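ugh ok fine here u go
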Amino acid sequence: MKLFTLVLFALVTVTAFGQESSYTRNLDWEHERHAWSSYWITHPTASVVDYGVFLFRNEFVLDEIPPTFMVYVSADNRYRLFVNEKEVSFGPARGSLQYWRYETLDLKPFIKKGRNVLAVEVYNLGPLRPVAQYSYVTAFIFQSEVLPDQLNTGVGSWKVMINKAYHARRVTPEMVLGKYYVAGPCDSIVGSEYPFGWEKMNFSDEHWHKSEVVQKGSGRGYMHGSPWMLVPRNIPMMEQRIIRFASIARQSQEFGTIDKNGFNVVVPPNSKYSVLIDQKELSMGFPELIVSGGAGAKIKATYSEALFDRNYDKGNRNEIDGKEIHGYSDIFVPDGREMQLFRPLWLRTFRYLQLDIETSIGSLQINDYYFKFTAYPFEEKGVFSCNNNELIKVWQVGWRTARLCALETYMDCPYWEQLQYLGDTRIQSLISLFVAGDDQLMRNALLTADQSRIPEGLTMARGPTFVPQITPPFSLYWVDMVHDYFMHRDDPEFVRQFLPGIESVFGWFERRMDNNGMLGKLDWFNFSDWTTGFLCGAPAGVDDGNSALISLNFVYALVRASDLFQYFNEQDKAEKYRQQAGRIREAVFKNCFDEQKRLIADTPLKQEYSQHTNVFGILTNTFPDNISKEVMTRVLQDKSLIQTTIYFKFYLFEALKMVGLGDLYLDQLEPWYTMLDEGLTTFEEGDYDDRSDCHAWGSSPLYHFMSIVGGIRSVSPGFKEVEIMPSFGILKNINVEIPHPHGQLTMNLSKKNDSEVQGLIILPKGIKGNFYWKEKSMKLIEGENKIRF
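structure:
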């Protein structure tokens, strides 16, 4: 059956080696309901559940070049597609078995008259695969609108072989110093077993096996069902570009150099050589090592975010004396042939990379060594500048952090987990909207979470993931994310689909209400913050009942949900959630407010007090209006309170803005300045652990530079009306540009003294708003608005 493309949106992406590839995003969701005319195929004798690399080939002849050459392709776990020796696509985008992605590609730019060769590398990381990677069995599917009888898998003449050169290399606790790691195995690659040139036109596959059929391809509505329910890719292809390594930090012997022309090292026979590379900043991608000679040699590549001293402390990331590398590693064993290319199956994350080489009877030449940077193709369209260079540095490092924590989904961190946690993702989504003007990864995150809901009603805390983790507050943050999208994108039908899921989440919490009006005992993992004052990240009252913080998290989500249901004319539900929020708010204040401390305790026992609970007391209007600012000041000053770490400071800063103390925001950035002083080039997970040097929630200043310092907020659905209330603090001038859906929103303001401000605000077409300064205000219209107070 031919797949008909009804709606197409063309995207141009750059493939691994810089050529342009025509990638087409298929938006015809009716494909979900059809069987394909092609079949999933695999190797006829190999294990299809273990770690393994499989190579597929097919040849065909064209008398004429057709107007288009549309194909549909996917694999389990991953594939690389080569057409006439050029790499065209790497995928599929990660999803679940119920939403397994396929790519829609136009191969016309790569085909030619006469003989053509399709070559596909498919790999399965097996039981050691990343926790974010679903899998059924190793398999590949390809469907073409041209020559389907020859090119469709299961029908055409596809051949397959096992690439026996690859062997799984387990990441052991010793490699990662006992820290939590779930991003998949590394590789050991034996050159003597590698079929170099397998993707080339002149390679002979006469001894390869005929592929074996696994299952007919199908979408979500196919009557016989399918282990992979195929749906179109809904995000762009990843950005990929070659980056040269920056410098050699040290080497055991003077055998090589790095310069603008690349990496050039010759290691003599019977020698040991170690070279430490400093990329100068954290990055990620696919390292590619090209060597000649060196039969019997062994090359070990170790990757790490930082170096460690004898006490396993990182210290200043720029300092290397007395430090050594610890991290996961690949092993490459060349067989003496010329220009052998070694590349791990999955991307690696590193600032420091060390090669340890031991040669045998022959010398080894490293002809080149570089990496192919790979990340979601975010563009930095937002602008923030001011008269403070330190803040500019925070912006730059924050943007690098945000970029490295985004691939085919958002990721909490690129080295350790590569998982899309909803707590991180809410912050990442707002940054994507305000800095990149790109909502596609946010949309994917909202859908993935909704699709992950369990029968009890809650979403997974993270996804995709084949290892379930349930964190009830994160399900509430998903509701908040739906509201964030609603306020910043005019896309009501996309939002409407989440209303049943929101009710489902709320139902779980409603069934756990206590007689005193607060939440009772809560099961699952109720993480709130990795602060030392919480037990395993969870606040007091979770296990015994009556957590004020989680109760107020619920209120925060209920209020936002009431806006959504009101918008969609579901008045009864909107009113239900408003009243429910009010009752819980009153119960928390009645049971937990301490008259003497003038703060809300974490439980009615009034034994623990945290910044967290009082921040959410402010964000939910639980305190009387006349004391909210006083409470916020107390929260900032009282060090006896359980303190927020980098993650939860996002909400602390939101509360600061809400009570009109935004001018204090810049004074709260000491943790970020400390990270810069310690040589970090991305922002870490927190001051409580030395694991992750790059963690998504650490990039929150990017959003707050726009929304607190710039003071720009959406105050109506779809970002149609804005409020601009800048908070200069110590600054004299603020320049902000936001990629609004209707065009660039620009603000250039200067402060002469504490009472005078002037400048220009340009609103996109069709957008209106209000500007506030001290006790004064001004209506804003589309186009130019001159500010002078």
